[in-house]
Amino acid sequence: MFRTAVLLASTPDQLLPARELMAFTLASHILLVPFGVALPFITLLMHYRGLRRNDAVALKLARRWSAVMAVQFAIGIITGTVLSFEFGLLWPGMMGRWGDVFGLAFGVEGWAFFLEAVLIAIYLYGWRRLKPWTHFWLAVPLPLAALMGAFGIIAANSWMNTPQGFRLDAQGNPVDVDVRQAIFTPMFGPEYWHFVVAMLLTAGYVVAGVYAVGWLRGRRDRYHRLGFTVPFTVAAILTPVQFMLGDSAARAVFHKQPIKFAATEIVWKTDTHVPEYMFGRLNSDGTISGGLRIPQLDSILAGFKPSTQVTGLTSVPAADRPTAVQATIAHWAFDIMVTIGSLLILLALWYAWSWWRHRDNPRGRWFYRCAAIAGVACLVTVECGWITTEVGRQPWIVYHHMRVSEAVTSTGAGSLWAMLGIVIAVYVTVFGAFLGVVLKMRTRWRIADEGSAARAEPPPETDTPYGPRGGLEPTTAGAAPDGGPGHPSGGAS
Question: Which spans are transmembrane here (predicted)?
Answer without folding.
Answer: 21-46, 67-89, 101-124, 136-159, 192-214, 226-245, 329-354, 366-388, 416-439
